[in-house]
Design a protein that fits this description.
Structural class: alpha+beta
Strand content: 15-25%
Helix content: 10-25%
Largest sheet: 4 strands, antiparallel
Oligomer: single chain
Number of helices: 2
Number of strands: 4
Radius of gyration: 12 Å
Order of helices and strands: EEEEHH
Strand order of the largest sheet: 1-2-3-4
Shape: globular
Amino acid sequence: MKKWLMDILACPIDKHHPLELHVFEEKDEIVEGLLVCPKCNRFYPIIEEIPHMLPDELREKNEDVEFLKKYKEKIPEKILKEGKPFNLGAG
């Protein structure tokens, strides 16, 4: 994902802008990372340079949970425990 996209990307659920960006791997572009909406606490993974910004009903729980587990040392605690639509919190 190109960094300039941060100027135009908004949360698809509540339209909040700007989103928070957490970069896990970067080359010419952001290869792996996370976009977070501070308003609704939703996260959107960046996988292989593509931001996955789907509405909740189209997201794959297994994929999102595996992403959270893979990068749990780099993801903010609030997203790990309370992120939407899925998280690693108890329950």
